[in-house]
Amino acid sequence: MVLLHGHLGAGAAGKVIESFGQVVIGGNFVVGFVVFIILMIINFIVVTKGAERISEVSARFTLDAMPGKQMAIDADLNAGLINQAQAQTRRKDVASEADFYGAMDGASKFVRGDAIAGMMILAINLIGGVCIGIFKYNLSADAAFQQYVLMTIGDGLVAQIPSLLLSTAAAIIVTRVSDNGDIAHDVRNQLLASPSVLYTATGIMFVLAVVPGMPHLPFLLFSALLGFTGWRMSKRPQAAEAEEKSLETLTRTITETSEQQVSWETIPLIEPISLSLGYKLVALVDKAQGNPLTQRIRGVRQVISDGNGVLLPEIRIRENFRLKPSQYAIFINGIKADEADIPADKLMALPSSETYGEIDGVLGNDPAYGMPVTWIQPAQKAKALNMGYQVIDSASVIATHVNKIVRSYIPDLFNYDDITQLHNRLSSMAPRLAEDLSAALNYSQLLKVYRALLTEGVSLRDIVTIATVLVASSAVTKDHILLAADVRLALRRSITHPFVRRQELTVYTLNNELENLLTNVVNQAQQAGKVMLDSVPVDPNMLNQFQSTMPQVKEQMKAAGKDPVAAGAAATASIAGALCKVVCAGAACAVV
C-alpha cells in the first residue's frame, strides 16, 4: 500500500497507518524513527534474543536430562511406587516435554526472523517509496521524503507492535516455570487474580478507542467487556472464596489419604521369561510393520512347548531405555541370562558350505552361537542369496537367540503349576493312573524327577508311559535320579529316534574300565547317603580323560556326517551325560 498508493497522501495506506503517523509521532519522522528504534531494540535485542537463548538452553538441558528421567521412571516402576499405566503416562510426558522445548527452539527462530523482517520491510518501503515518488510521480525530494517516510514509519510501528506482542508471548511460554498446571490455567489465574489488571486493560482500550483514525467500535466493545469482568470480580464475596479454598484443601487431603497403600498387589511379580529391547529395536514389535518379532517369539514358544511336552510361560517383550539403542537382553526369572547388540537396520548373512566369495558388510558374530557372520544392507539381500549366504532378518536373529537361551533354562522354568497342568492332562487320559501317581510320589519328588528328565533333554509328552514307570519304580526307590533313569530306559525308542539314520544308530560307548569306575563312584555315593546322585564328586583324572577324549570323538562323528551320541548304562547315565555337557557341548548321552 505504501509503495502503490503513497503518492496520493498519508491516508492512502490506511487510516491506522495515517493515525500512527499523524497522532502517535505527531507528524515528525525523527520522533517516529526514535520510537521505532526503541521498539526494535526492545523486541530484537531484549525479548527475542533472550527468548532464543533460553529456548536453546532449555532444549539442550531437557534432552540431556531425558535419559535420567527415563531411568527414574523405571526405578519407580521396579520399586512399586507406580504401576505400568502410570509409567507409560510419565514416559509420554517426558517425550512431550522434549518435543515442546525442541519446537520452541525452532519457533524462536521464526520470532527472531519476524523482527528482522520488520527492519527490512522498513528499509525497502523507505528507499523504494522515495525513489518512486521522485522518479515516477515527479515529487520533489523533500516532499517525497516527508510523505513516504511518514507512512513508512507509521506502517513500521503498526507492524512492530504485534511483533513485540508475539515475541513477548513466546518468551513467556519459554520462561514459564510452574507446577503441574497447564499454561492456560496459569494465565487465567494470573490475569484474573486481581480486578486491577482488568481495570488497567480497560483504560488502555478506551484510550485507543478515542484516538482519531483508530477502529473505535472494537476497542470500545473490548473496553466495556474487560470493565464488566473486572467489576464482577470485585464484587465476588470474600467468604465464598475462602470457603472454596477450604473445600479444595479438604478434597486434597481426602484424596491423599485414600491413595493406594503398599500391599501384595503393588509388589511387581517376577516374569519367568522376558525380552527387553533398545528403542531402535522397538519397531520389530510394531503392529504397523506386522509384529515380526512377536510372531517369531510365539513360534519359538510353540516349538519348545511341543518338543518338551510342557507349556512354556509367555515371553514378555518390552522396551528398556537402560539398554543401548540396538541392544536386547533376555531375562529368566528376572535375572539377565544373555544380551547382544545387533544392527537394527541390517540383515545377517550367514555363510554356508555353498558360499563362494565375500560380500561387503560389517563383520560380526551370531549372537546365539557365535559363528562369524556379515551384517549387510537390505539392498544386498539378493546378491547375498546368489552367493550362497543364508540371509536372516533381525527378528529371526533375536528369536533364534531366545530359543537357545530358553531351551537351556527349561528345567528352571518348570514348577508346581506345570505339574498340576501335566497331571490334569494325565487325568483326562488315565484317571486311575493319575491317582496312583499322586499317591506314590508327592509334588516335591515329582518336580525333581521332571526337572531331571528335562535337564537331560527328555520330553514329557508321553506322560502316560512316564507315570506308569514312576508308579512302578517308586515302590523300590524315591531317588529322583534313579527314577529318571528308569523313565529314560522306558523311553529309549523316543530318545534315540532323532539320531536313527536308515534304521541304524551310531554311538560311542564308555569302555569297561571307565564304566566300572563310574559305577563304583555312584555306589559309594549311595552307600554314604550324603551326596545326591546328580552331584557325585568325580576324580580329576577321570575328568581329564573326558576333556581330552570327548571333543575328539565329537569332531570325528560330525566329520562322518553322524550325530554326536554317547551311550551308557542306566546307572551311570546321569554322571556321564553331565560330563559330556561340561566338556563337550552338543554331545548327547542316550541310554540304549
From TrEMBL:
Keyword Transmembrane: yes
Coiled-coil stretches noted in the UniProt entry, renumbered to this chain: none
Cellular location(s): Cell membrane
Cellular component GO terms held in the UniProt record: plasma membrane
Transmembrane segments: 20-46, 115-137, 157-178, 190-211
Keywords, comma-separated and alphabetical: Cell membrane, Cell projection, Cilium, Flagellum, Membrane, Transmembrane, Transmembrane helix
GO biological process: bacterial-type flagellum assembly; protein secretion
Principal subcellular localisation of the protein: membrane
Pfam families: FHIPEP
Alphabetical list of InterPro entries matching this protein: FHIPEP_1, FHIPEP_3, FHIPEP_4, FHIPEP_CS, T3SS_FHIPEP
Membrane-protein topology: Multi-pass membrane protein
Family to which the UniProt record says this protein belongs: Belongs to the FHIPEP (flagella/HR/invasion proteins export pore) family.
Record protein name field: Lateral flagellar export/assembly protein (FlhA-like)
Organism: Escherichia coli
Gene that produces this protein: lfhA_1
